[in-house]
Amino acid sequence: MNQLKHPLVLGGALAVVAVTAAFAAGPDLGAVKQSATNWPAIGMFAFFVLFTLGITYKAAKGTKSAADFYAAGGGISAGTNSLAIAGDYMSAASFLGISGLVYTSGFDGLIYSTGFLVGWPIVLFLIAERLRNLGKFTFADVASFRLDQTSIRIISATGTLVVVAFYLIAQMVGAGKLIQLLFGLPYLYAVIIVGVLMIVYVAFGGMKATTWVQVIKACLLLGGATFMAGAVLYKYGFNPEALFAAAVATHPKGDAIMAPGGLVSNPIEAISLGVGLMFGTAGLPHILMRFFTVSDAQAARKSVFYATGLIGYFYILTFIIGFGGISLLMSDPAYFSLDAAGAFDKLKGMIGGTNMVAVNLANAVGGPYFLGFISAVAFATILAVVAGLTLAGASAVSHDLYAQVIARGRVNEGAEVRLSKIAAVVIGIVAIYLGYVFENQNVAFMVGLAFSVAASCNFPVLTMSILWRGTTTWGALIGGLVGLIAAVGMVVLSKAVWVTTFGNPVAIFPYDNPALFSMPLAFLTIFVVSKLDNTRRARAERALFDAQFVRSETGIGADGAHAH
Amino acid sequence: MSDIETARVAQNPRFKELVHERTRFGWTLTIIMLVIYFGFIGLIAFDKALLAVKIGGGTASLGLVLGVAVIVLAFILTGIYVQRANGRFDELTAALKRDVGR
Predict the structure, then answer these.
(1) Region A333-343: what's the mean pLDDT?
(2) Å from A262 to nearest chain B CA?
(3) In a mutagenesis test of the A interface, which of B11, B29, B75, B86 is the best target, namely the one with the most A β-carbons within 10 Å?
(4) Are A127 and A466 in contact (CB under 8 A)?
(5) Average confidence (pLDDT) over A265-287
């Protein structure tokens, strides 16, 4: 019976008995050991999978044209799209990671939450409507509107695939470890289950299935987090002040958790992180694709507005959940690995690591079945996010690289969509393989790197081609390449890779986040190279700006989205 | 769309009005958002003590209130843009489309 009451805790406790030393060594997911099989969670997850497979089956029957496959026929409503955008954004990393960060550091968790959110207004004010007016299926459609198809699609697709690759590796490794902990399944099984399901969603159901999986998950996650935050506040009479007071009284850092701590010690680091988070959002290919699934610029704009509200609300919930973790879990030895004297480390000793705060809190406020529910939602979250990434990657391969670069636009729709499905299968298999290879590597920096590349390659190429008449193909191509190489290069030379992975004594690049340097470098390169570019093609491209400008501002001549 | 049509739209005074107004509005809101966010980050980087100041004699700090305010303001700014776009900009666009017969 004990197992039913605290399945996760018991499983974790057994693991601790077996490998106390290894387990106590690290609070992160790196030292994870498999838990006892968690049947309520597996049951609920199985239900989610069956339900979404049903949706995929239905979506597959309605997915015939390329517009259906890449953009769900353009028939997604603003409300649905906003939930899908929010779903893409509310990854397991932001749910478990930020609540865990609030648990250990209090206020510092807010720095990430605000950074992740403030990119959205920028997307709305500068990009969303123009993207919808100019594009069809991928953001490369927009960037190459008046520029050379081959060059621009190569750089856009490269930027897309690099972002997708790093993001996918981080998600796959996270998924494997999380599922070991939550469900008690072996790492490799977990990675294979995620990989196979994402292939099925994308290859059969295209954007329709990917969108609906994301929407369902977003509703489940928002519902679950709302219940949890509500239950925490209920215990404190819906008085946040009482919650904060209890947290300060319990936390070993005391009152320091209400103020900025050590997370951002260096001003340049702080600003660079902010630049990466803010502008990276506006360059994430799987997010940009969502603007092509709605009917017009009006719907695109409304979806960003609702999505910003949903994401902001979600981050406030994670903050309350983190504080709930401090006040409700920190004094309860049942959630910690104990030493011989029965003492435990409040910050590092949580069973399963601090990423488990939200999951353990689910048990504390809602019992084992709610714990099962939240575990299933966490798995569903990873699944939905990797499906979106896979679709973005597959679209870059088929719509950009194959149809425009290799076949030079002479390709029929059927062949292009078929290739996209094959690409989804290949990306899925590669992701499973990489998830397996990277099991014991440090992948924490990879999401940050994905954001930095998005901010330093995709975002400058996209905005300069839309907003500045002077941009030429050479400018965008070289600027995008410089941004990409600078972002990846600086991360490789930074502490996370140069010292931690390669074992060198000192980092050559002193900051963890390169965006403050790599993004302006990309913009500057695009500007300078375009200015110097006086080829006949460059003059023709500048002349073509008027037609692009009229369409991007008014939507006159934009692709009719409804395929029927 | 042909070059002649493009020129016809581009020369239309309503088009110029729409582009001018929306570009200015969009950049103004963008700059406000940048100032709010990097102001917050700047305070974290340069004046941690100020953010630790207690609000109303309780436990909640100024930093906490400002952090939540950044989130709420981001949402409000998008709301302001959408309201203006749904009204003014969409009316201008519709009038422009009637003018040029599209």
Answers:
(1) 83
(2) 10
(3) B75
(4) yes
(5) 87
Provide φ and ψ at A76, rounded to 5°. -80, 135
CB contact under 8 A, A241 and B18: no
pLDDT over 80 at B93, yes or no: yes
The alpha-helical segments, DSSP class H, found in B1-102 are: 3-11, 13-46, 48-51, 62-84, 90-99
Q: What is the ipTM of this complex?
A: 0.93
Residues contacting residue A485 through CB under 8 Å, at least 6 positions apart: none
Question: What is the model's pLDDT at position A459?
Answer: 95
Per-residue pLDDT of A86-105, as tens digits, reads 998 888 878 888 898 899 88
A367 at B interface, C-beta within 8 A: no
The span from the CA of A481 to the CA of A397, in Å, is: 18
Residues of chain A with Cβ-Cβ distance to B72 below 8 Å are: 312
A227 closest CA partner among A324, A98, A117: A324
CA B102 to chain CA mean position, Å = 29
Q: What is the pLDDT of residues A124-164, one digit of tens each?
A: 999 899 999 988 888 998 999 999 889 999 999 999 999 99
- With a CB cutoff of 8 Å and minimum separation 6, the contacts of A420 are A69, A70, A394, A395, A397, A398, A399
Residue count (chain A): 564
Contact A86/A311 with Cβ under 8 angstroms? yes
Q: Rounded to the nearest 10 degrees, how much is the dihedral formed by the CA atoms of A119, A125, A126, A129?
A: 110
Chain A residues touching B93 at Cβ < 8 A: 554-555
Pair A109, A358: CB distance under 8 Å: no
Number of residues in chain B? 102
Distances from the Cα of A153 to the Cαs of A132, A160, A251, A390, B34, in angstroms? 18, 10, 52, 18, 30
